[in-house]
Amino acid sequence: MQSKPNIKKMKKIFLAFLLFAFIASPLFCLSQAAGNWYYNQKKSGNTNNFDDGIINNNANEANYYRQTKQQYYTPVYSSNDTSFTIGADVMMNVKADEYVIIFATSQVGETIEISHDVINKRIDAFINSVIPLGIKKEDIYIDFISQFPIFEVEVEKKLFSKTYNEVPKGFEVRKNIHLRYKDSKIVEQMLIKASQNEIYDIVKVDYVINNSQAVYDSLRATCVRIINEKAKEYKKLGIKYDAKYQTVNDNISSTYPLDRYSTFAEFVKYTGDEAKPGSKTLPRSNVPALYYDKKAYTGYDLVINPAVIEPVVQFTCNLTVKFVLKKQ
């Protein structure tokens, strides 16, 4: 009589096999290679979900694995009985021609006149310090933001009660400095000059492309070339282009560096050794740790200027041609 198989033993073997397969899989290696990026995406809920074995690819444009390999694959050729479509997607990384940086500053004084006078002296000193860096006065604009009184509360004590009164104690003036420049290498020197004049806040940096239309024209021409090359290759499959009519759809877009900065978790903590006498914990600011996370290259037929080492403006063009066939 044949003995029944040991069910418990088979379950152990099966679980051991699954564990080995998981450890050997590329997805397990992904968590090691992605480092802080993956940890941050996991905390924000935008990472791949491995709990049920299904990759939930909703994070930004693509996951880290695809972005690192920079896979280029041809999108779409689709067809049915009456029509078919050929498409092309192209991206171009473009370095900015100019930049506009905005510094924010404020000043508190006993009177409105004193506040304006002091902040103007600080701004003038900063402007005079950056002119030797190649900045022209016509490339600087002072944007007046606001002026408002500052109050403090005084307590007036009475026999059986207290009265709280707001008393004006001074004024605060806020102004922004808009500064245009072309050489990105002078930014660090400008920041030092700004801090020397008690200007610490950077609102943002705009990247300026002087002729974006020329970029789009180049992308569109590249898409047309790619579609023609695809059509030529598809003819080898016996596809006939005897169409009743054709429709064309053109979609262009641009992504600027300001929209592509992400936060990441810092593993290093600057703390002192509490066990040692006199050791102090260093204060840490609440400013998040950021990095430039360019738009992923996944899904594009061609990426022009793919190797970038600095933030760039990323232009994209999607062109599709639909062939509506004649009825036979």
| Secondary structure category | alpha+beta
Radius of gyration: 31 Å
Q: What's the level 1 CATH class of the domain at 98-208?
A: Alpha Beta
Assembly of the depicted chains = single chain
Cα end-to-end separation: 69 Å
CATH fold title of the domain at 98-208: Alpha-Beta Plaits
Q: Estimate the helix proportion, in percent.
A: 25-40%
Shape: elongated
Instruction: List the secondary-structure elements in sequence, H or E.
Output: HHHHEEEHEEHEHEEEEE
Strand count, sense and closure of the main sheet?
5 strands, mixed
Average of pLDDT: 76
- Strand tally is 11
User: What low-confidence regions span 5 or more consecutive residues with pLDDT below 50?
Assistant: 1-5, 13-42, 47-75
Individual helix count: 7
β-strand percent reads: 25-35%
The CATH homologous superfamily name of the domain at 98-208 equals: Protein of unknown function (DUF541), domain 2
Describe the structure in your own words.
The chain is an alpha+beta fold and 328 residues long. Among the domains are: 72-96 and 210-260 and 295-325; 98-208, 2-Layer Sandwich (Alpha-Beta Plaits). Helices cover 29% and strands 33% of the residues. It has seven helices and eleven strands. The strands form three sheets. Strands 1, 2, 7, 10 and 11 form a five-stranded mixed beta sheet that branches. It has a four-stranded antiparallel beta sheet with strand order 4-5-3-6, covered by helices on one side. β1 (77-79) and β2 form a beta hairpin. Residues 1-5, 13-42 and 47-75 have low confidence and may be disordered.
